[in-house]
Amino acid sequence: MKKAAIAFVLALLVASLTGCVTTNATTLGTATAQRPALAPEQVALYRLASQVPGKYEEIALLNSAGDSGFTDEARMFQSMKKKAGELGANAVILDAVSEPSAGAKVAAAIFGVSAQRKGKAVAIYISPGSAPSFPTAEASAQPQNGECVSCAKIARDFNEG
Hints:
Helices cover 35% and strands 25% of the residues. It has 161 residues and is α+β, with helices and mostly antiparallel strands. It has one domain (20-160).
């Protein structure tokens, strides 16, 4: 009985450490070339397609999921950037992030199951000559391309974190 309890605690510990975020990609038939992998830091993040500077090609649909107790949006976005970079995409356009309902969170707490936070995005490759620029901290503190002040703050916090 004692060995079973120890095994359960170890399994729970391993699950909590590895249960962060997973991102799966479904490549699209529109991709025209294989590109070398990029580091997540080289992958830009856009909230809207209209914010992308120039022409781009859609590479893959990204689906992320993680336990809401161990995952926040920043980790989800980082996982998306990592997966996009592995595919040779140099940017990600966010689609949606959905939170589990209050009932799902209560059930997760009571029954020890996971309440999943989910996110969707599109990995893209921005054509040369219109490559993504990475703003400085001062520039990202100001709203850009008509985005709201809180969106500029979220972008600044994400870039600093």
